[in-house]
Amino acid sequence: MVYLKNFLELGISETFNHTLRENGITEATPIQEKAIPVILSGKDIIGQAKTGTGKTLAFVLPILEKINPESSDVQALIVAPTRELALQITTEIKKMLVQREDINVLAIYGGQDVAQQLRKLKGNTHIVVATPGRLLDHIRRETIDLSNLSTIVLDEADQMLYFGFLYDIEDILDETPGSKQTMLFSATMPKDIKKLAKRYMDEPQMIQVQSEEVTVDTIEQRVIETTDRAKPDALRFVMDRDQPFLAVIFCRTKVRASKLYDNLKGLGYNCAELHGDIPQAKRERVMKSFREAKIQYLIATDVAARGLDVDGVTHVFNFDIPEDVESYIHRIGRTGRAGGSGLAITFVAAKDEKHLEEIEKTLGAPIQREIIEQPKIKRVDENGKPVPKPAPKKSGQYRQRDSREGSKSESRRDSRNGSRSDSRNSSRNENNRSFNKPSNKKGSTKQGQQRRGR
């Protein structure tokens, strides 16, 4: 059994230890155990850890220990790729400040009232949590003063790279003091992240949590082999069978997420979509409703779900298999949280087998296959009542086609007897009566007759 240290041993004060215990946190996770003493010593660090490992508290607790509440300066800056993650970090900080009301934190992101942000920035704000775009806007307006900044954190740096924020991050770092402590956290280490670290960090200490330290022991994993066409039916069958309390359904793209949302919403499921095309205000309403269990199914893309931390998620459905192992672990980590159990089901088509093999190789074991028999699923209206299948069309056009068939036979017989000209005139007249649209293309009527006569 691995001994996990408590936070007092790591150098965290009793004030924050008491708050941690009040929140049910008594032992440090591996990333916290490794990172907290190094951060408290003032060194730059690069932390390679995935979401769900406790990395937020790993940098938040040392930052809070070093804040001087008597100063009105912005002393710590945390930059996150999405508004959702920025709000999540801010919430975590506020949880730790129930006994330290002398420390103030402010979240800055797009979609907020700028005037309200300006008023708060003029007050005593010690910690700012921001997205790159809005932060850079304040820097250029000179409405935020970072001249006395002592700590900066770049959280989920690989995702900021994915969003195209690399140049924004460089501009932000250029506006901060050279003597600050810099921390960079990332699930993966692309070469551009390494270049960024080399340019802006002072002999950073690498802290890494290996994949095997990210536990998925409390999550039951299954694979359902299907086809792309049959995926929606297979998903709905499992949803109806398992009746999840809360579930996240992951799609590879915004288009697929939106299409699946329309499908499930039309069938009466209590669901919402979360992706980059959803306006920020609506995204916040969706997340609030999901946390309050007013929405049962959240259909999301990987990027939109970054930082998604909701207790009570019982199921994760990978409607589309992720293309890398890190995303798979991040996805299924949305369930089985806080010591609870969870179920992750991945729908796999033949073209997905390569990605599945990579995931199983990293996990060190095959994922259990599940075979399901899919019943016919009936369409329902907004009140949940079955919608009858539409009857086949019986328009006059079909009866006219029958009459044309007879005319065509007669026309052919006439043409064989040398009455080709009369046949064409008769066909044109019949065609005009049937469609009320004369043909302007030479020979088109004859070609149409030949096609219909096959």
Automatic annotation (TrEMBL):
List the biased-composition ranges (Basic residues): 439-454
What are the residue boundaries of the Helicase ATP-binding domain, all occurrences included?
Answer: 36-207
Q: Where is this motif: Q motif?
A: 5-33
Q: Does the keyword Hydrolase apply?
A: yes
Ranges of biased composition (kind: Basic and acidic residues): 374-384, 399-431
Gene Ontology, cellular component aspect? cytosol; ribosome
Question: Any transmembrane segments, and where?
Answer: none
User: What Gene Ontology biological process does one annotation of this record name?
Assistant: response to cold
Alphabetical list of InterPro entries matching this protein: DEAD/DEAH_box_helicase_dom, DEAD/DEAH_RhlB, DEAD_box_RNA_helicases, Helicase_ATP-bd, Helicase_C-like, P-loop_NTPase, RNA_helicase_DEAD_Q_motif
State the residue spans of region: Disordered: 374-454
- Name the Enzyme Commission number(s) assigned to this protein: 3.6.4.13
**Metal-binding in keyword set:** no
CDD domains this protein is in?
DEADc, SF2_C_DEAD
Pinpoint the Helicase C-terminal domain residues. Answer: 218-379
Q: Where would I find the DEAD-box RNA helicase Q domain in this sequence?
A: 5-33
This one is known as RNA helicase
- Which species does this protein come from? Bacillus cereus
